[in-house]
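Minutes, project huddle
Topic: does the predicted pose make sense with nicotinamide-adenine-dinucleotide bound?
PN asked that the exact inputs be recorded in the minutes so nobody has to dig through chat later. Recorded below.
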Amino acid sequence: MTKTAAIVGGGVIGGGWAARFLLNGWNVQVFDPDPEAERKIGEVLANARRSLPGLSDAPLPEEGKLSFHDDMGAALKGAVWIQESVPEVLELKHKIFAQIQSHCDKGAVIGSSTSGFKPSELQQGADAPGQIIVTHPFNPVYLLPLIEVVTTEENDADFIEAAKAELTGLGLYPLHLKKEIDAHIADRFLEAVWREALWLLKDGIATTEEIDNAIRYGFGIRWAQMGLFETYRVAGGEAGMKHFMAQFGPCLKFPWTKLMDVPEFNDELVDLIAGQSDEQSGAYSIRELERIRDNNLVAMMRALKAQDWGAGALLKSHDTLLKGGTPLGTPLEAMGDLSQPIVTLSRAVPLDWTDYNGHMTESRYLDAFAQSTDRFMDLIGANNEYIEGGMSYFTAETHIRHLDEVRAGERIEVRTQMLLGKGKKLHLFHSMYAGDKLLATGESFLLHVSLETRRPCEPSEAVSAAMAKIAEAQAGLPYPEGAGSAIRAPK
Ligand code: NAD
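Predicted holo structure (C-alpha coordinates), as shared on screen:
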Protein backbone atom coordinates (compact mmCIF):
# COMPACT_ATOMS: atom_id res chain seq x y z
CA MET A 1 0.00 0.00 0.00
CA THR A 2 1.22 3.50 -0.80
CA LYS A 3 2.58 5.19 2.32
CA THR A 4 1.96 8.81 3.18
CA ALA A 5 4.43 11.37 4.50
CA ALA A 6 3.50 14.79 5.84
CA ILE A 7 5.93 17.65 5.28
CA VAL A 8 5.56 20.43 7.83
CA GLY A 9 7.59 23.38 6.58
CA GLY A 10 8.31 23.18 2.86
CA GLY A 11 11.37 25.40 2.36
CA VAL A 12 14.76 24.32 1.02
CA ILE A 13 14.91 21.26 3.26
CA GLY A 14 11.20 20.38 3.46
CA GLY A 15 11.04 20.60 -0.35
CA GLY A 16 13.97 18.21 -0.64
CA TRP A 17 12.29 15.73 1.72
CA ALA A 18 9.05 16.04 -0.26
CA ALA A 19 10.93 15.14 -3.45
CA ARG A 20 12.77 12.21 -1.81
CA PHE A 21 9.49 10.68 -0.54
CA LEU A 22 7.51 11.39 -3.68
CA LEU A 23 10.04 9.94 -6.13
CA ASN A 24 10.28 6.83 -3.96
CA GLY A 25 6.57 6.21 -4.37
CA TRP A 26 5.15 7.84 -1.22
CA ASN A 27 2.18 10.22 -1.22
CA VAL A 28 3.23 13.57 0.20
CA GLN A 29 1.00 16.09 2.01
CA VAL A 30 2.52 19.51 2.64
CA PHE A 31 1.67 22.07 5.32
CA ASP A 32 3.38 25.45 4.97
CA PRO A 33 1.64 28.82 5.43
CA ASP A 34 3.87 30.51 2.84
CA PRO A 35 1.75 31.20 -0.28
CA GLU A 36 4.91 30.61 -2.34
CA ALA A 37 5.47 27.10 -0.90
CA GLU A 38 3.87 25.29 -3.84
CA ARG A 39 6.00 27.15 -6.40
CA LYS A 40 9.19 26.63 -4.36
CA ILE A 41 8.58 22.91 -3.86
CA GLY A 42 7.74 22.65 -7.58
CA GLU A 43 11.20 24.00 -8.41
CA VAL A 44 12.98 21.60 -6.04
CA LEU A 45 10.91 18.77 -7.48
CA ALA A 46 11.87 19.67 -11.05
CA ASN A 47 15.55 19.44 -10.08
CA ALA A 48 14.96 16.16 -8.25
CA ARG A 49 13.07 14.60 -11.17
CA ARG A 50 15.98 15.12 -13.53
CA SER A 51 18.68 13.95 -11.13
CA LEU A 52 17.46 11.31 -8.64
CA PRO A 53 15.78 8.59 -10.75
CA GLY A 54 18.85 8.03 -12.93
CA LEU A 55 21.10 7.38 -9.93
CA SER A 56 19.55 3.92 -9.79
CA ASP A 57 20.10 1.24 -12.38
CA ALA A 58 16.52 0.10 -11.89
CA PRO A 59 13.37 2.19 -12.08
CA LEU A 60 12.14 3.84 -8.88
CA PRO A 61 8.54 3.07 -7.93
CA GLU A 62 5.75 5.11 -9.56
CA GLU A 63 5.79 8.65 -8.20
CA GLY A 64 3.31 9.27 -5.37
CA LYS A 65 0.69 12.04 -5.18
CA LEU A 66 1.65 15.53 -3.95
CA SER A 67 -0.93 17.73 -2.21
CA PHE A 68 -0.86 21.04 -0.33
CA HIS A 69 -3.07 21.73 2.69
CA ASP A 70 -4.04 24.90 4.60
CA ASP A 71 -5.09 22.81 7.54
CA MET A 72 -2.53 20.91 9.62
CA GLY A 73 -5.03 18.09 10.40
CA ALA A 74 -5.64 17.48 6.69
CA ALA A 75 -1.91 17.45 5.97
CA LEU A 76 -1.28 14.84 8.67
CA LYS A 77 -4.16 12.55 7.72
CA GLY A 78 -2.91 8.99 7.22
CA ALA A 79 0.76 10.01 7.50
CA VAL A 80 3.11 7.38 8.96
CA TRP A 81 6.06 9.79 8.74
CA ILE A 82 5.90 13.48 9.61
CA GLN A 83 8.98 15.53 8.76
CA GLU A 84 9.28 18.87 10.51
CA SER A 85 11.46 21.40 8.64
CA VAL A 86 10.31 24.80 9.99
CA PRO A 87 12.86 27.55 10.79
CA GLU A 88 15.48 26.81 13.44
CA VAL A 89 13.72 28.41 16.44
CA LEU A 90 13.11 26.16 19.45
CA GLU A 91 9.86 27.82 20.60
CA LEU A 92 8.45 27.52 17.07
CA LYS A 93 9.41 23.85 16.88
CA HIS A 94 7.74 23.22 20.30
CA LYS A 95 4.56 24.92 19.10
CA ILE A 96 4.59 22.89 15.88
CA PHE A 97 5.12 19.57 17.72
CA ALA A 98 2.13 20.34 19.99
CA GLN A 99 -0.02 21.01 16.91
CA ILE A 100 1.27 17.89 15.17
CA GLN A 101 0.64 15.67 18.18
CA SER A 102 -2.92 16.89 18.57
CA HIS A 103 -3.70 15.59 15.05
CA CYS A 104 -1.33 12.82 14.09
CA ASP A 105 -1.43 9.06 14.31
CA LYS A 106 0.11 7.92 17.62
CA GLY A 107 2.41 5.46 15.87
CA ALA A 108 3.73 7.93 13.28
CA VAL A 109 7.37 9.01 13.35
CA ILE A 110 7.91 12.74 13.86
CA GLY A 111 11.35 13.46 12.43
CA SER A 112 12.90 16.90 12.89
CA SER A 113 15.36 18.31 10.34
CA THR A 114 16.99 20.49 13.00
CA SER A 115 20.65 21.23 12.38
CA GLY A 116 21.42 22.29 15.91
CA PHE A 117 18.94 21.20 18.58
CA LYS A 118 19.29 18.01 20.59
CA PRO A 119 16.29 15.66 20.59
CA SER A 120 15.93 16.08 24.39
CA GLU A 121 15.40 19.81 23.78
CA LEU A 122 12.83 19.13 21.05
CA GLN A 123 10.97 16.62 23.24
CA GLN A 124 10.61 19.07 26.19
CA GLY A 125 6.95 19.59 27.09
CA ALA A 126 5.68 17.24 24.38
CA ASP A 127 2.59 15.06 24.99
CA ALA A 128 4.38 12.03 23.53
CA PRO A 129 8.14 12.72 23.57
CA GLY A 130 8.89 9.17 22.41
CA GLN A 131 7.43 9.97 19.00
CA ILE A 132 9.96 12.74 18.25
CA ILE A 133 13.44 12.06 16.88
CA VAL A 134 16.04 14.06 15.00
CA THR A 135 16.45 13.04 11.35
CA HIS A 136 18.96 15.59 10.10
CA PRO A 137 19.42 15.63 6.31
CA PHE A 138 21.89 17.31 3.97
CA ASN A 139 21.07 19.61 1.10
CA PRO A 140 20.00 18.49 -1.54
CA VAL A 141 17.98 15.96 0.44
CA TYR A 142 16.84 14.25 -2.77
CA LEU A 143 20.44 13.33 -3.71
CA LEU A 144 22.59 13.12 -0.57
CA PRO A 145 21.98 9.92 1.39
CA LEU A 146 23.17 10.86 4.90
CA ILE A 147 20.57 11.28 7.64
CA GLU A 148 21.83 11.79 11.18
CA VAL A 149 19.38 10.02 13.47
CA VAL A 150 19.53 11.30 17.05
CA THR A 151 17.35 9.84 19.77
CA THR A 152 16.91 9.86 23.56
CA GLU A 153 15.87 7.30 26.14
CA GLU A 154 12.28 8.39 25.55
CA ASN A 155 12.42 6.70 22.14
CA ASP A 156 11.63 3.02 22.13
CA ALA A 157 14.29 0.79 20.48
CA ASP A 158 11.75 -0.85 18.11
CA PHE A 159 10.40 2.55 17.13
CA ILE A 160 13.93 3.73 16.27
CA GLU A 161 14.70 0.59 14.25
CA ALA A 162 11.45 0.92 12.30
CA ALA A 163 12.24 4.57 11.56
CA LYS A 164 15.73 3.67 10.36
CA ALA A 165 14.27 0.96 8.11
CA GLU A 166 11.93 3.51 6.50
CA LEU A 167 14.90 5.78 5.79
CA THR A 168 16.87 2.92 4.27
CA GLY A 169 13.88 2.14 2.05
CA LEU A 170 14.11 5.71 0.71
CA GLY A 171 17.73 5.12 -0.36
CA LEU A 172 19.00 7.08 2.65
CA TYR A 173 21.80 6.20 5.05
CA PRO A 174 20.68 6.56 8.68
CA LEU A 175 23.67 7.29 10.90
CA HIS A 176 22.46 6.75 14.46
CA LEU A 177 24.43 8.83 16.97
CA LYS A 178 25.53 7.08 20.15
CA LYS A 179 24.74 10.18 22.21
CA GLU A 180 23.02 13.46 21.55
CA ILE A 181 25.15 16.55 21.13
CA ASP A 182 24.49 20.09 19.88
CA ALA A 183 24.64 20.16 16.05
CA HIS A 184 25.18 16.36 15.81
CA ILE A 185 28.34 15.12 13.99
CA ALA A 186 28.66 16.56 10.50
CA ASP A 187 27.72 20.15 11.24
CA ARG A 188 30.18 20.32 14.14
CA PHE A 189 32.81 19.34 11.68
CA LEU A 190 31.64 21.86 9.11
CA GLU A 191 31.50 24.52 11.80
CA ALA A 192 35.18 23.96 12.62
CA VAL A 193 36.11 24.29 8.95
CA TRP A 194 33.87 27.37 8.62
CA ARG A 195 35.59 29.07 11.58
CA GLU A 196 39.02 28.49 10.06
CA ALA A 197 37.73 29.88 6.74
CA LEU A 198 36.47 33.01 8.50
CA TRP A 199 39.92 33.60 9.99
CA LEU A 200 41.65 33.06 6.66
CA LEU A 201 39.30 35.61 5.07
CA LYS A 202 39.49 38.14 7.87
CA ASP A 203 43.27 37.96 8.03
CA GLY A 204 43.46 38.45 4.27
CA ILE A 205 45.23 35.14 3.71
CA ALA A 206 42.78 33.84 1.09
CA THR A 207 39.62 34.82 -0.82
CA THR A 208 36.40 32.80 -0.84
CA GLU A 209 37.41 31.39 -4.21
CA GLU A 210 40.89 30.39 -3.05
CA ILE A 211 39.44 28.64 -0.02
CA ASP A 212 36.95 26.79 -2.24
CA ASN A 213 39.80 25.83 -4.58
CA ALA A 214 41.87 24.54 -1.66
CA ILE A 215 38.98 22.19 -0.92
CA ARG A 216 37.78 21.14 -4.37
CA TYR A 217 41.14 20.62 -6.04
CA GLY A 218 42.51 18.53 -3.23
CA PHE A 219 41.25 17.09 0.02
CA GLY A 220 37.57 17.61 -0.84
CA ILE A 221 37.78 14.96 -3.56
CA ARG A 222 39.61 12.63 -1.16
CA TRP A 223 37.03 13.16 1.55
CA ALA A 224 34.13 12.47 -0.83
CA GLN A 225 35.34 8.96 -1.44
CA MET A 226 37.11 7.86 1.77
CA GLY A 227 36.37 10.39 4.46
CA LEU A 228 38.96 11.46 6.98
CA PHE A 229 40.37 8.41 8.73
CA GLU A 230 40.60 6.03 5.79
CA THR A 231 42.35 8.78 3.81
CA TYR A 232 44.89 9.31 6.60
CA ARG A 233 45.40 5.59 6.95
CA VAL A 234 46.53 5.52 3.34
CA ALA A 235 48.68 8.61 3.97
CA GLY A 236 50.48 6.71 6.74
CA GLY A 237 51.83 4.35 4.09
CA GLU A 238 52.63 0.74 4.83
CA ALA A 239 53.25 1.49 8.48
CA GLY A 240 49.58 2.42 8.74
CA MET A 241 47.56 4.51 11.11
CA LYS A 242 49.85 4.33 14.14
CA HIS A 243 52.75 5.64 12.10
CA PHE A 244 50.58 8.39 10.68
CA MET A 245 49.57 9.55 14.13
CA ALA A 246 53.09 9.37 15.50
CA GLN A 247 54.28 11.53 12.63
CA PHE A 248 51.53 14.10 12.55
CA GLY A 249 50.03 13.98 16.03
CA PRO A 250 52.31 16.64 17.55
CA CYS A 251 51.08 19.17 14.97
CA LEU A 252 48.02 19.65 17.14
CA LYS A 253 50.25 21.33 19.70
CA PHE A 254 51.54 23.85 17.17
CA PRO A 255 49.59 27.09 17.01
CA TRP A 256 48.21 26.20 13.58
CA THR A 257 44.60 26.53 14.44
CA LYS A 258 42.50 29.30 15.85
CA LEU A 259 39.71 26.80 16.22
CA MET A 260 38.63 27.74 19.71
CA ASP A 261 38.53 31.41 18.89
CA VAL A 262 35.93 33.01 16.61
CA PRO A 263 36.51 36.23 14.66
CA GLU A 264 34.04 38.98 15.37
CA PHE A 265 31.19 38.44 12.93
CA ASN A 266 30.63 42.12 12.14
CA ASP A 267 29.32 43.94 9.05
CA GLU A 268 32.84 44.36 7.74
CA LEU A 269 33.45 40.59 7.67
CA VAL A 270 30.00 39.88 6.22
CA ASP A 271 30.53 42.47 3.45
CA LEU A 272 33.98 41.07 2.71
CA ILE A 273 32.62 37.53 2.30
CA ALA A 274 29.49 38.54 0.38
CA GLY A 275 31.52 40.73 -1.99
CA GLN A 276 34.07 38.03 -2.72
CA SER A 277 31.36 35.44 -3.15
CA ASP A 278 29.53 37.67 -5.68
CA GLU A 279 32.75 38.07 -7.59
CA GLN A 280 33.38 34.33 -7.49
CA SER A 281 29.93 33.00 -8.40
CA GLY A 282 27.65 35.97 -9.14
CA ALA A 283 27.60 35.16 -12.86
CA TYR A 284 25.33 32.18 -12.11
CA SER A 285 21.80 32.26 -10.70
CA ILE A 286 21.07 30.04 -7.69
CA ARG A 287 18.99 27.73 -9.91
CA GLU A 288 21.94 27.39 -12.32
CA LEU A 289 24.32 26.65 -9.44
CA GLU A 290 21.87 24.06 -8.10
CA ARG A 291 21.80 22.29 -11.46
CA ILE A 292 25.60 22.39 -11.77
CA ARG A 293 25.86 20.99 -8.22
CA ASP A 294 23.35 18.23 -8.98
CA ASN A 295 25.09 17.28 -12.24
CA ASN A 296 28.40 17.02 -10.38
CA LEU A 297 26.95 15.06 -7.47
CA VAL A 298 25.24 12.56 -9.76
CA ALA A 299 28.39 12.06 -11.84
CA MET A 300 30.53 11.58 -8.72
CA MET A 301 28.13 9.21 -7.01
CA ARG A 302 27.69 7.13 -10.16
CA ALA A 303 31.47 6.94 -10.52
CA LEU A 304 31.69 5.74 -6.90
CA LYS A 305 28.95 3.22 -7.65
CA ALA A 306 31.07 1.69 -10.39
CA GLN A 307 33.81 1.29 -7.75
CA ASP A 308 31.32 -0.07 -5.17
CA TRP A 309 32.69 2.38 -2.60
CA GLY A 310 31.31 4.88 -0.08
CA ALA A 311 28.06 6.54 -1.15
CA GLY A 312 28.32 4.54 -4.40
CA ALA A 313 28.25 1.23 -2.52
CA LEU A 314 25.08 2.38 -0.79
CA LEU A 315 23.49 3.20 -4.16
CA LYS A 316 24.47 -0.19 -5.47
CA SER A 317 22.95 -2.08 -2.58
CA HIS A 318 19.80 0.05 -2.80
CA ASP A 319 19.37 -0.98 -6.44
CA THR A 320 18.90 -4.57 -5.33
CA LEU A 321 15.79 -3.45 -3.40
CA LEU A 322 14.23 -1.93 -6.51
CA LYS A 323 12.38 -4.27 -8.78
CA GLY A 324 13.43 -3.33 -12.28
CA GLY A 325 12.34 -5.70 -15.02
CA THR A 326 13.76 -9.11 -14.24
CA PRO A 327 16.76 -9.29 -11.93
CA LEU A 328 20.02 -10.75 -13.17
CA GLY A 329 20.13 -14.52 -12.78
CA THR A 330 16.38 -15.06 -13.30
CA PRO A 331 16.09 -18.44 -15.06
CA LEU A 332 14.29 -18.58 -18.39
CA GLU A 333 11.56 -20.76 -16.86
CA ALA A 334 10.68 -17.96 -14.44
CA MET A 335 10.32 -15.36 -17.19
CA GLY A 336 6.63 -16.00 -17.87
CA ASP A 337 5.37 -15.24 -21.39
CA LEU A 338 8.25 -15.45 -23.85
CA SER A 339 6.13 -14.92 -26.95
CA GLN A 340 6.61 -11.14 -26.81
CA PRO A 341 9.88 -9.18 -26.89
CA ILE A 342 11.61 -9.62 -23.53
CA VAL A 343 12.20 -6.63 -21.22
CA THR A 344 16.00 -6.51 -20.94
CA LEU A 345 16.49 -3.01 -19.49
CA SER A 346 14.30 -0.81 -17.36
CA ARG A 347 15.67 2.35 -15.76
CA ALA A 348 15.60 6.16 -15.80
CA VAL A 349 18.02 8.19 -17.93
CA PRO A 350 20.90 9.32 -15.68
CA LEU A 351 21.98 12.96 -15.79
CA ASP A 352 25.44 11.98 -16.96
CA TRP A 353 23.93 10.24 -20.01
CA THR A 354 22.71 13.56 -21.39
CA ASP A 355 24.55 16.12 -23.50
CA TYR A 356 24.65 19.74 -24.63
CA ASN A 357 21.43 19.19 -26.59
CA GLY A 358 19.63 18.39 -23.33
CA HIS A 359 18.78 14.81 -24.29
CA MET A 360 20.32 11.34 -24.05
CA THR A 361 23.60 11.38 -25.90
CA GLU A 362 24.43 9.09 -28.82
CA SER A 363 26.95 6.82 -27.12
CA ARG A 364 24.54 5.99 -24.30
CA TYR A 365 22.11 4.32 -26.71
CA LEU A 366 24.84 1.83 -27.48
CA ASP A 367 25.55 1.55 -23.74
CA ALA A 368 21.87 0.81 -23.03
CA PHE A 369 21.59 -1.71 -25.88
CA ALA A 370 24.85 -3.38 -24.79
CA GLN A 371 23.38 -3.77 -21.30
CA SER A 372 20.29 -5.33 -22.89
CA THR A 373 22.48 -7.75 -24.83
CA ASP A 374 24.31 -8.67 -21.59
CA ARG A 375 20.95 -9.23 -19.92
CA PHE A 376 19.82 -11.44 -22.81
CA MET A 377 23.06 -13.43 -22.61
CA ASP A 378 22.47 -13.92 -18.89
CA LEU A 379 18.96 -15.15 -19.65
CA ILE A 380 20.10 -17.87 -22.07
CA GLY A 381 22.75 -19.01 -19.60
CA ALA A 382 25.77 -17.21 -21.09
CA ASN A 383 26.31 -15.64 -17.68
CA ASN A 384 29.43 -14.76 -15.64
CA GLU A 385 30.02 -18.39 -14.69
CA TYR A 386 29.77 -19.46 -18.34
CA ILE A 387 32.23 -16.77 -19.35
CA GLU A 388 34.63 -17.79 -16.58
CA GLY A 389 34.32 -21.30 -18.02
CA GLY A 390 35.91 -20.01 -21.24
CA MET A 391 33.09 -19.20 -23.65
CA SER A 392 31.22 -16.01 -24.48
CA TYR A 393 29.64 -13.93 -27.23
CA PHE A 394 31.46 -11.21 -29.17
CA THR A 395 29.50 -8.47 -30.95
CA ALA A 396 30.29 -8.45 -34.65
CA GLU A 397 27.96 -5.71 -35.86
CA THR A 398 25.53 -3.11 -34.47
CA HIS A 399 23.04 -0.77 -36.09
CA ILE A 400 21.22 1.91 -34.12
CA ARG A 401 18.33 4.09 -35.32
CA HIS A 402 17.51 7.23 -33.30
CA LEU A 403 13.79 7.92 -33.67
CA ASP A 404 12.84 10.26 -30.84
CA GLU A 405 14.50 12.10 -27.96
CA VAL A 406 14.49 11.43 -24.23
CA ARG A 407 15.64 13.56 -21.28
CA ALA A 408 17.35 13.00 -17.94
CA GLY A 409 15.12 11.34 -15.34
CA GLU A 410 12.66 9.86 -17.90
CA ARG A 411 12.02 6.16 -17.67
CA ILE A 412 13.17 3.95 -20.54
CA GLU A 413 12.54 0.30 -21.26
CA VAL A 414 14.27 -1.94 -23.79
CA ARG A 415 12.42 -4.96 -25.20
CA THR A 416 14.37 -7.56 -27.10
CA GLN A 417 13.32 -9.83 -29.94
CA MET A 418 15.64 -12.67 -30.98
CA LEU A 419 15.75 -12.72 -34.77
CA LEU A 420 18.13 -15.68 -34.87
CA GLY A 421 19.65 -17.82 -32.16
CA LYS A 422 21.15 -20.93 -33.57
CA GLY A 423 24.60 -22.49 -33.58
CA LYS A 424 27.25 -19.81 -33.30
CA LYS A 425 24.92 -17.00 -34.38
CA LEU A 426 22.88 -14.67 -32.21
CA HIS A 427 20.94 -11.86 -33.86
CA LEU A 428 19.05 -9.51 -31.54
CA PHE A 429 16.70 -6.62 -32.18
CA HIS A 430 16.26 -4.19 -29.25
CA SER A 431 13.49 -1.57 -29.15
CA MET A 432 13.80 1.27 -26.64
CA TYR A 433 10.63 2.93 -25.37
CA ALA A 434 9.63 5.78 -23.06
CA GLY A 435 6.07 4.74 -22.22
CA ASP A 436 4.51 3.97 -25.64
CA LYS A 437 6.95 6.17 -27.53
CA LEU A 438 9.56 4.28 -29.57
CA LEU A 439 12.86 6.11 -29.03
CA ALA A 440 15.39 3.95 -30.81
CA THR A 441 16.13 0.51 -32.11
CA GLY A 442 19.42 -1.34 -31.81
CA GLU A 443 20.22 -4.39 -33.88
CA SER A 444 23.19 -6.57 -32.94
CA PHE A 445 24.77 -9.57 -34.48
CA LEU A 446 26.91 -11.68 -32.15
CA LEU A 447 29.12 -14.69 -32.58
CA HIS A 448 29.68 -17.34 -29.96
CA VAL A 449 33.41 -17.68 -29.27
CA SER A 450 35.95 -19.65 -27.30
CA LEU A 451 37.85 -17.25 -25.08
CA GLU A 452 40.88 -19.49 -25.42
CA THR A 453 41.19 -19.55 -29.22
CA ARG A 454 39.30 -16.22 -29.66
CA ARG A 455 37.57 -18.00 -32.60
CA PRO A 456 33.87 -18.86 -33.13
CA CYS A 457 32.70 -22.14 -31.60
CA GLU A 458 29.42 -23.92 -30.82
CA PRO A 459 27.65 -22.86 -27.59
CA SER A 460 26.89 -25.30 -24.77
CA GLU A 461 23.83 -27.51 -25.09
CA ALA A 462 22.07 -25.54 -22.35
CA VAL A 463 22.60 -22.22 -24.16
CA SER A 464 21.47 -23.76 -27.48
CA ALA A 465 18.37 -25.19 -25.78
CA ALA A 466 17.50 -21.82 -24.20
CA MET A 467 17.81 -20.09 -27.60
CA ALA A 468 15.64 -22.77 -29.19
CA LYS A 469 12.98 -22.21 -26.55
CA ILE A 470 12.92 -18.45 -27.20
CA ALA A 471 12.96 -19.01 -30.98
CA GLU A 472 9.89 -21.24 -30.68
CA ALA A 473 8.07 -18.80 -28.40
CA GLN A 474 8.84 -15.76 -30.56
CA ALA A 475 8.21 -17.52 -33.89
CA GLY A 476 4.86 -15.73 -34.25
CA LEU A 477 6.34 -12.24 -33.93
CA PRO A 478 6.54 -10.21 -37.15
CA TYR A 479 9.98 -9.29 -38.44
CA PRO A 480 10.41 -5.82 -36.87
CA GLU A 481 10.21 -2.70 -38.99
CA GLY A 482 13.72 -1.33 -39.44
CA ALA A 483 15.50 -4.63 -38.92
CA GLY A 484 18.19 -5.34 -41.46
CA SER A 485 18.34 -1.72 -42.60
CA ALA A 486 21.52 0.12 -43.38
CA ILE A 487 22.28 3.80 -43.72
CA ARG A 488 20.79 4.83 -47.04
CA ALA A 489 22.82 6.61 -49.67
CA PRO A 490 21.93 10.32 -49.82
CA LYS A 491 19.33 11.11 -52.51
P1 NAD B 1 13.61 27.62 5.05
O1 NAD B 1 13.49 28.99 5.63
O2 NAD B 1 14.04 27.46 3.63
O3 NAD B 1 12.21 26.88 5.21
C1 NAD B 1 11.40 26.94 6.34
C2 NAD B 1 9.95 26.79 5.88
O4 NAD B 1 9.11 26.67 7.03
C3 NAD B 1 9.45 28.00 5.09
O5 NAD B 1 8.92 27.55 3.83
C4 NAD B 1 8.38 28.59 5.98
O6 NAD B 1 7.29 29.18 5.25
C5 NAD B 1 7.93 27.39 6.78
N1 NAD B 1 7.25 27.71 8.03
C6 NAD B 1 7.46 28.75 8.85
N2 NAD B 1 6.61 28.68 9.89
C7 NAD B 1 5.85 27.57 9.72
C8 NAD B 1 4.80 26.97 10.46
N3 NAD B 1 4.35 27.50 11.55
N4 NAD B 1 4.27 25.81 9.97
C9 NAD B 1 4.70 25.26 8.83
N5 NAD B 1 5.70 25.81 8.09
C10 NAD B 1 6.28 26.93 8.53
O7 NAD B 1 14.56 26.83 6.04
P2 NAD B 1 15.38 25.46 5.76
O8 NAD B 1 16.75 25.80 5.33
O9 NAD B 1 14.55 24.57 4.91
O10 NAD B 1 15.50 24.88 7.25
C11 NAD B 1 14.47 24.18 7.90
C12 NAD B 1 15.05 23.28 8.98
O11 NAD B 1 15.99 22.38 8.37
C13 NAD B 1 15.83 24.01 10.08
O12 NAD B 1 15.57 23.37 11.29
C14 NAD B 1 17.28 23.82 9.67
O13 NAD B 1 18.15 23.82 10.77
C15 NAD B 1 17.24 22.45 9.04
N6 NAD B 1 18.32 22.16 8.06
C16 NAD B 1 18.70 23.09 7.13
C17 NAD B 1 19.71 22.78 6.21
C18 NAD B 1 20.12 23.74 5.11
O14 NAD B 1 21.16 23.51 4.49
N7 NAD B 1 19.36 24.77 4.80
C19 NAD B 1 20.32 21.50 6.23
C20 NAD B 1 19.88 20.57 7.17
C21 NAD B 1 18.88 20.92 8.08
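Observations noted during the meeting:
- Residues 4-177 form a domain with the Rossmann fold fold (CATH 3.40.50.720).
- The first strand starts at residue 4 and ends at 8.
No decisions taken; revisit at the next huddle.
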